[in-house]
Automatic annotation (TrEMBL):
Species for this entry: Propionicimonas paludicola
Location within or outside the cell: Cell membrane
GO cellular component: plasma membrane
Residue stretches spanning the membrane: 81-108, 114-131, 143-163, 169-194, 289-312, 324-345, 365-398, 410-431, 443-463
Name used for this protein in its record: PST family polysaccharide transporter
Amino acid sequence: MSLGRVAARGAGTVMAGQLARVVLQVASVAILTRLIDPTDYGLFTAGMLLVGFGEVFRDFGLSTAAIQAKELSTGQRDTLFWLNVALGAALSAAMALLAPLAAWWFGAPQLTDLARLLGLVFLLNGAVAQYRASLNRTMRFNALVVSDLGANLVGVGVAVAMAANGWSYWSLVGQSLAGGVALLLLTGFQAGWLPGRPRRGTGVRAMVRYGAALVASQFISYLNNNFDNMVIGTRMGLEPLGLYSRAYQLLMRTVNQFRVPTTTVALPVLSRLDGRDRNDAFVLAGQKALGYAIVPLIAVAGATAVPIVAIFTGPKFQAIATPFAILAVASAFQTVAYVGYWVYLARGLTKHLLTYSLIGLVGRALGILIGSSWGIVGVAIGFAVSEALLWPISIWWLSRYTPMPVRSLYAGAFRVLGVAAVAGVAGYYAVGASAALPSIVQLIIGVVVVGLGYLAAAVIPAFRRDYQEMISFARMALPQRAG
């Protein structure tokens, strides 16, 4: 089977799994936001800021190094497994020591015990890292999807049961730990191997160097992704943090459920492609696939923010509708630039990724800090403006270090963003005009108007060609009949 068909089939499998995860995530948000208060969400989010920071170092980039490597021996795999476990255990211990400091910083004594228990996530994720890398490397995408979805089901089930019995923020801790245990068991079973003892002289030093350069970029990426939460938690308190985190989870994390796993397919394929023409073709096709599969959903989310929030979060979280819509704009810009991340990893350009990540951090931090003077809405605006300014810079920066079809990527991004803007604005005004109707009717109207906007764009030849390419790609992703 050609790599193109493998990529298409893999993308189809991953997207189907992610669709199921998104449905599960949205359902869990709809239930849990009615059982847990914004302040409790803020407390849990503060704890997860520490977990996210530690997660940067837990993996140390070793799973990506294993996927990207041309060859991986059993000795290397086993040694990398125990390195990940050791790092996870060390970070769990560090979390226990730092928990009182975090509680003092946020002015929340209950954060001490919460953070210490959440620290066990490091150990679980360290143990699962090389199992996931093994499945990814061998392009066993079905196994990855089954493991991820099963773990999410277990975690959500535990959280809902605990929240219904009055466990408040502890139910969210239970979700993280139960999901982590389930993921380790399911992924280990799917991978079908047990780790041997670590051995010297297996040649993992080069992988550790690759991972070390990647860790620095991941640390900057962590700050990029969490600086808004840090600023809100420090300057505004736990309740605004809880509100903003729900808007972020409902929009950005839902989008990431589709966007981030595409690296699962793209990294092993790009690492094996030879020749610039084939690489350029894959990158351009990847941008279109992301743009026309994900950005329309983002346009719908932005246009129908008010009814979405009313339906899925309940009365305690109505204030998040505006930041939710603004975050949709930021997410669209992030999506058209996301293929650059694939290229950085596949071509081993982790040092250059680090440099650009620093540039991006400065831009986002400035936007968020300036916007924070106007509350959580201002933070969302600052975030969106910085993403709008950074996405073209990200593509240009990468082209300085490796061949890239820059003009074609810009043109493709402008088409993706242009049709989303027109369709999204039309949907937004249609929803506003139907404000007197029930929320579900407003949502349906918004979806229909955005969909009609995309259909109307087909009269323009460039968009029609893009749509035809996406239809061909979708057909490749579907299972083929025998014979």
